[in-house]
Amino acid sequence: MKLIYTTTSPLARKCRIILRELGLTDKIEEIITTTRSEDSLIMSYNPNGMVPTLETDEGYTICESTVICNYLEKQSKNKEFIPQKEQEYWQIVGLDAIASQMLESVVSRARDTKFKPKEFHFPAGIQYEQRRVQRGLDFLEKKSSIFMNKVNRLHITLGMVCLVLDNVFPDEKWKENRSDILKVYEEFKSRDSFKDTVTT
CA-to-CA distance for 148 and 154, rounded, in angstroms? Predict the structure, then answer.
């Protein structure tokens, strides 16, 4: 398998961390690409030019980080990382979907901050996305007893949300009254999978 990624994409890094947690590093070649150019390598795998993109051994093209992670879980025998009871599995998948939407929100805002001139920023839209993520954090803090005691894909997605907030939006008061989420974040940063995917 081949995972096509950029070193700056949080969504791609989520997949890279999860494939390590699943013990699949010996089965996947990780290939760095650039984007935003029609001659970028990614165009050979995904005509939309978006990362992450996975090419399977069968030649399937799989895009979108959540779909890629679904596929990777199917290839892994790591029963510790993937909840084995159906009820628990769908609880985690459901909460991970919420965290994934939050990650897409903060990544979109981070991209706009980097690439859009300030006069093209839309304050009302920015505030809406800020509130969306704050609501999501509050919701997950209340649900934390479901996922606190065992590392799974939700930990990785939520950790990436916190990482982007920490690095790009440090002035937003997202840490207040969220002790359980902060524990997940700190544990996330201590994992080998996190350290192994740090880029300079």
Answer: 10
97 and 65 in a single domain? The answer is no
Note down the domain range covering 57. Answer: 2-75
Rounded to whole angstroms, the Cα distance separating 78 from 65 reads 19
pLDDT at 103 over 70: yes
In whole angstroms, what separates CA 43 from the centre of its chain?
22
Per DSSP, the three-state class of 171 is coil
CA distance 52 to 4: 6
Residue 59 and residue 115 in one domain: no
**Per-residue pLDDT tens digits for 70-91:** 999 999 999 999 999 999 999 9
Domain end: 28, 56, 75, which one? 75
Asked if 90 and 176 sit in the same domain, the reply is yes
Task: Quote the DSSP letter at residue 42.
Answer: G
Q: Are 146 and 95 in contact (CB under 8 A)?
A: yes
For residue 198, CA distances in Å to 14, 17, 41, 45, 144 come to 11, 10, 22, 24, 27
Q: Is 189 helix (H, G, I), strand (E, B) or coil?
A: helix
| pTM (predicted TM-score) | 0.94
